[in-house]
Amino acid sequence: MKKWKAFLPPVTLVMFFIFIWEAGARAVNVSFILPGPSGIIIRLWELKEILFFEHLPATSLIILLGLSISVLLGVSLAVWMHASQAVERAFYPIIISSQMIPIIALAPIFVLWFGYSIWSKVVVTVLITFFPITVSTFDGFRSSSKELKELLLTMGAGKKDIFLKLNVPSALPYFMSGLKVAVTLSVIGAAIGEWLGAQAGLGYFSRRMMTQFDGAGVFAPIVLLSVIGICLFLLVNLLEKYVLKWRKI
C-alpha cells in the first residue's frame, strides 16, 4: 500500500498536465500544430500496424546494438584506465572533450560515411551512451576502499583477487547508475540518427509526418520512444536490485 502511495503524487501531476494540455489543444483548435493527448492516442491506434511492426523494430535494434557496444567498450576502457595511469592520462581528457561536441552536428557526417544504413544511427547512439557508462564505471573502480585493499594484501590476495573481490563490487553500483542514464540517452541517440537520415524507424516516421503537417502523427512515435525509454529504465532498475542484492537500494 505504501508503494502505491509513493506513485500517487507523480501520477496526479502527470494527469494534471495532460488535462491542461488537452484543454489548451481544444481551445486553440489547431491540431496540425498542437494536437491533444486524445488525438495522439487515436492517431497512434490508427498507425499501430506500421509503427509497431515496421518502425519500432528498426529503432529497437539500433538501441540494442548501440547500448551493447557502449557497455563493452565503456567497461573495457574503464578497466584499462584503472589498471594504468598512463592510459587514464591519455584517454580521460579525450572522453571528457568528446562531450563538448554537439552530437547533432556530427550525425550528418556519419550519414555521409555510413549512408542510410543502420550503422550511422548506431554510431550516434554509441557516442551518446558511451560517456556515462565509462565515467561512472571508472569512478566506481576509484572508489574502492584502500583499507580493504591493504587488508586483502596482508591476507595474501593477488591482483586478480583484489580486482574481482574488491574493485568489481565497488564499481557495480556506479556502473548500474551510468547504465540507467545510458538507456534513456540511447533512445535520444537513435531518434536523432533516424531524424537526420534513415529509411525506417520511429524518428524517421516522426519527421515524415512533419512534412505532411500531421501533428498527431508526429507525436505518436514520440510517445512510443518515451515508453521505450521508461521500460528500459525500469528494466535496468530491476536488474540493479537483482545484481546488488547485498546492497540496500
TrEMBL record:
Q: What is its main location?
A: membrane
**Bilayer disposition of the protein:** Multi-pass membrane protein
| UniProt cross-references to SUPFAM superfamilies, sorted A to Z | MetI-like
Alphabetically list the UniProt keywords: Cell membrane, Membrane, Transmembrane, Transmembrane helix, Transport
In terms of CDD domains, this protein maps to: TM_PBP2
Query: What protein is this chain from?
Result: Putative hydroxymethylpyrimidine transport system permease protein
Assigned protein family: Belongs to the binding-protein-dependent transport system permease family.
